[in-house]
Design a protein that fits this description.
Layout lengths: L1 E7 L2 E7 L1 H7 L6 E2 L11 E6 L4 E3 L4 E13 L2 E10 L6 E10 L14
Parallel strand pairs: 1-3
Antiparallel strand pairs: 1-2, 2-4, 4-5, 6-7, 7-8
The structure holds zinc ion.
Zinc ion binds next to loops.
Length: 116
């Protein structure tokens, strides 16, 4: 585990990521992004920066669940949840998250988390 800065549309979050999560966040442009990582647990996030407040807070952002869905977005891939990380002070959106599930997960439960 190591600490990374993850960019969102309205600021950034400092979070502990596994190597696998860090790879997902890295879109190859020299920065890491919040959106591709999936949902981060609150205790994994140590700080957040809000562009609206122009302040870096020494605590995690709030997690705002927008909807639980079951939308099929591709063959074999289902969007199960989406939501936002929001500023603990002004409620501005720091970034978004999406949680996906592979449809055939049950047949390969041990490797369900692996990417691709
Ligand atoms: Zn704010």
């Amino acid at each position: 585990m190591a600490e990374f800065k993850l960019q969102g549309s309205g600021g950034y979050v400092i979070a502990d990521l596994t190597e696998d999560q860090a790879k997902k966040a890295d879109l190859g442009v020299g920065k890491l992004f919040l959106a591709p990582v999936g949902k981060l647990e609150e205790q994994k996030m140590s700080k957040h920066y809000c562009k609206t407040c122009e302040v870096e807070f020494n605590n995690p952002p709030k997690i705002h669940l927008e909807e639980n869905t079951n939308e099929q977005v591709a063959d074999n891939l289902i969007l199960v949840e989406r939501g936002q990380y929001t500023c603990q002070q002004c409620n501005s959106v720091i970034g978004e998250y999406r949680v996906f599930k592979k449809q055939d997960e049950s047949s390969d439960a041990g490797n369900a988390i692996s990417s691709q």
